[in-house]
Specification:
- Keywords: Membrane, Transmembrane, Transmembrane helix.
- By secondary structure, this protein is an alpha+beta fold.
- The protein has three domains: about 10-345, no CATH class; about 385-475, no CATH class; about 480-580, no CATH class.
- Helices cover about 50% and strands about 15% of the residues.
- It is built from 24 helices and 15 strands.
- The strands form four sheets. Strands 4-5-6-7 form a four-stranded antiparallel β-sheet, covered by helices on one side. Strands 8-9-10-11 form a four-stranded antiparallel β-sheet, with no helix packed on it.
- Strand 6 and strand 7 (about 455) form a beta hairpin.
- Helix 3 (about 35-45) packs parallel to helix 21, helix 6 runs parallel beside helix 8 and helix 16 (about 250-270) crosses helix 18.
- The radius of gyration is 31 Å and the shape is elongated.
Length: about 575
């Protein structure tokens, strides 16, 4: 690459690479296995106070929650936050390459083809922890005392706890094992891959703490002859063959990264009973290859051998990039080709192209937020009509009025009958409203006829409830959800959000009272959802609910969405919305 070096300087190359990758990081939308899951976490984080942030998402490391907290406090969108983290990872990686690589072009190529799409734009938490630890602890530019290194590791662990795997490696930094010792350890790790640790831990899942590990198990005793395993074996052998020259390098970071990489490949095969755990624990050494392999190429003084090495790395990088792009499409749940994915940027984002559980959650939140905005816009502008006093309506429902912080009554058209006058939610039995009040030493019930405004004697409460219950018994029959049912719903939001092939289980409850309608219960991805259908399998509205109630005798049902409770009349109209009371 000498001719290339004469045309463009190192500084210009790295800055240009940073700018290009930063633009990609900002424009991408939905790319990566974790894009939508981090969006979900970002939206779920409670930022009312520092205390609420500490109590929120406790399974996420504090440092990353703190970054999200600051971002939300200053009003950044999730995409902007994710883009900033991604760009920071890119800049730190290229700065690390600048400080340590003996061939910055090859190192940049390896970073882009092997790591960018996973560790820079998808796995943001571990990606940021990874590059911070590598940049500070494995860099010719910095020298820290042992206690400072431990503090740096702890700080990085606040972003992702996996960086603590580096602690024993740092403590053993001055120990240089022989090639024979490393090969013996590597051979033992390969043998360990045949031990069925997954099955053993699965059998012990009832034991505290061990049970938590089973979440990460994907198999057991399956050996090492798969694509990820073969790649790491080849990497280990390539580094091991050049071990003596690498650890004697004047570039101290090359020695440290060589040991880190070899140790990490050994760790990978020890934990290979869970591909997820193995990848997370060994990524630090795997990441080191973007510095090590260009250094190996530069060890060869003969131009022909060096060019062969470069050609080999470039060929491997091309194959790796192709594999990474296919993996990105699969993990993102994108229905379309690579060209379509590249066009689906933040400037032209189409969520409907992505089918995965967290995107589905985001779409459902968008829908319920839109419904909330429309309803509360009408409420705050007093655009919700009052019922005619001479024609209050056929059926009634008690609802919460946010302006008075009390409960009132609406009819099945969504018209206001009584506006926020009850301290507690009253029960309604036909035309009778029953309000619970506190007496001097016991609870009292006040009964009132909604239409006439006349009070009913309290001793008639039991008879009122019994008569009402007897008249409103529901008839229910559950049947199977079939392909014909799904075809009937084509064109609805439900069919747009959930492809039939992604439905795991489903059933339909047919109701015959107070009118004929259906409730569909569907499990897709890891979510159970409900929708209301009329008797011809047409969705009554476009809402998808986490939980629902059947229609009562007042011809009103209640469905809980991701952000509120919606009151629905028999036509599917959302006549009232209540936010969750905290």
């Amino acid at each position: 690459m000498s001719a290339f070096n004469k045309k463009i300087s190192k500084k210009t190359f790295l800055i240009s690479s940073a700018v290009i990758l930063a633009i990609v990081s900002f424009l991408r939308f939905g790319v990566g296995a974790d894009y939508f899951s981090y969006e979900y976490l970002y939206n779920e984080l409670d930022v009312k106070s520092i205390g609420s942030m500490l109590d929120s998402l406790v399974f996420i490391e504090f440092g990353f929650r703190a970054l999200m907290y600051i971002s939300k406090i200053v009003g950044l969108s999730y995409h902007t936050f994710a883009s900033i983290i991604s760009i920071a990872i890119v800049i730190l990686t290229l700065a690390w390459i600048n400080d340590n690589s003996e061939n910055y072009q090859l190192s940049t190529l390896l970073f882009y083809t092997l790591f960018y799409f996973v560790w820079a734009i998808s796995a943001l938490r571990q990606g940021l922890a990874l590059i911070l630890a590598m940049y500070l602890l494995f860099n010719n530019k910095y020298f820290f005392k042992m206690y400072q290194k431990v503090l740096i590791l702890l700080a990085c662990a606040s972003l992702h706890v996996s960086v603590l795997i580096l602690l024993p490696i740092i403590l053993l930094r001055d120990y240089t094992p022989s090639k024979k010792t490393l090969m013996i350890l590597f051979g033992i790790s390969l043998v360990i891959t045949f031990i069925p640790f997954g099955s053993i831990l699965g059998a012990l899942s009832s034991i505290p703490y061990i049970g938590k590990l089973t979440h990460y198990l994907e198999g057991s005793g399956r050996g090492f002859l798969d694509f990820p395993g073969i790649v790491r074996i080849l990497f280990f052998i390539g580094i091991w063959l050049h071990y003596d020259k690498l650890i004697e390098s004047k570039n101290k970071s090359i020695r440290d990264l060589t040991l880190l990489s070899l140790y990490s490949f050994i760790i990978y095969f020890v934990f290979k009973f869970s591909e997820l755990m193995a990848a997370r624990f060994s990524v630090f050494g795997y990441f080191s290859v973007i510095i090590i392999f260009p250094s190996i190429v530069m060890l060869y003084e003969k131009r022909q051998l060096r060019m062969m090495g470069m050609a080999g790395l470039m060929t491997f990088s091309s194959l790796s990039l192709y594999k990474e792009m296919k993996t990105v499409i699969d993990q993102s749940g994108f229905r379309g080709g690579l060209v379509e994915l590249n066009k689906n940027t933040i400037l032209n984002a189409d969520r409907g192209k992505f089918f995965n559980q967290y995107n589905l959650i985001a779409q459902r939140i968008e829908l319920c937020k839109a419904n909330e905005k429309e309803f509360f816009g009408k409420f705050e502008s007093d655009a919700i009509p009052y019922a005619d006093k001479n024609n209050l309506g056929d059926h009634f429902q008690s609802v919460f009025f946010p302006d008075t912080n009390m409960y009132g009554i609406i009819n099945d058209k969504g018209e206001i009958v009584e506006r926020g006058i009850y301290r507690y939610r009253p029960e309604i039995y036909g035309d009778i409203v029953v309000e619970e009040t506190e007496g001097t030493s016991f609870k009292r019930f006040v009964l009132k006829n909604i239409r006439t405004g006349e009070y009913v004697p309290e001793d008639q409460l039991s008879a009122t409830i019994d008569n009402f219950t007897e008249e409103t018994k529901m008839r229910t029959k559950w049947i199977d959800f079939d392909h014909y049912t799904y075809e009937q719903m084509k064109g609805s939001l439900f069919a747009e959000l959930i492809p039939e092939e992604d439905i795991l289980t489903s059933s339909i409850g047919k109701y015959g009272s107070p009118f004929f309608y259906e409730i569909v219960e569907v499990t897709a991805y890891t979510q159970t959802m409900y929708i209301y259908l009329d008797d011809y399998y047409n969705p009554l509205n476009n809402s998808i609910y986490y939980s629902i109630t059947p229609y009562g005798s007042n011809f009103i049902a209640i469905g809980k969405t991701s952000c509120s409770s919606e009151y629905i009349n028999r036509n599917g109209d959302i006549i009232w919305i209540e936010k969750e009371q905290k």
